[in-house]
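TASK: fixed-backbone design
INPUT:
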């Protein structure tokens, strides 16, 4: 697929920080090239600067089950089913880290599992909502053993985390996705990938964890 434009087709006339806290919001005044070859009028756009994140779907081929986390999410205050969301393991990339390192760290913090990079299979790398934020997510599937005792409550108290972990049969999570019970993009994308690759993954051996 051909992209007609590059960053040379954008002129940023002014940038200001309108909020700076745990995240930042920038306001850009810019013009960009139009498909007819002309330039747009000056536009004002706010950008939610969130950075890069990682998501990890934990899948046990032997038991054919998935582990998901559940925690309170401020963005779901208006969700009729409540603000506690079923998700893949996820976390933000800190300066100097790569995505695989973050994946392994977040899995350990949120589930207690110690995994190896060799257990990670890349799913997708995508912008979460390019109309307003620069966030990009790297999704992985981690092939691992999910013992029943993984179920419990995890998270870092100093970060205000209260994370519940449960395991589900793959058919259960696929049904929940179709029913809308699982309703966040990273988890839906990861589970759709699992559906497509399910038969192949069922016959893969799991690299031994620590």
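OUTPUT:
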């Amino acid at each position: 697929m051909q992209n007609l434009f590059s960053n040379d087709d954008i002129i940023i006339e002014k940038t200001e920080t309108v909020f700076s806290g745990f995240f930042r919001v920038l306001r850009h005044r810019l013009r960009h090239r139009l498909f007819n070859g002309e330039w747009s009028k000056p536009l004002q756009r706010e950008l939610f600067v969130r950075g890069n994140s990682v998501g990890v779907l934990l899948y046990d081929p032997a038991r054919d089950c998935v582990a998901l986390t559940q925690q309170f999410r401020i963005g779901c205050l208006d969700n009729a089913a409540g603000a506690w969301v079923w998700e893949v393991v996820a976390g933000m990339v800190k300066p100097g880290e790569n995505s695989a390192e973050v994946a392994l760290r977040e899995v350990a913090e949120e589930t207690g599992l110690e995994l190896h990079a060799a257990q990670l299979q890349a799913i997708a790398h995508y912008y979460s909502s390019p109309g307003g934020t620069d966030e990009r997510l790297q999704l992985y599937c981690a092939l691992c053993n999910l013992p029943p005792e993984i179920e419990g409550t995890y998270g870092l108290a100093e970060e205000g985390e209260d994370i519940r972990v449960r395991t589900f049969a793959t058919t259960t999570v696929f049904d929940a996705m179709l029913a809308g019970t699982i309703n966040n993009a990273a988890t839906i994308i990861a589970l759709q990938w699992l559906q497509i690759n399910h038969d192949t993954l069922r016959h893969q051996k799991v690299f031994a964890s620590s």
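COMMENT: Residues 185-201 form the longest helix (17 residues).
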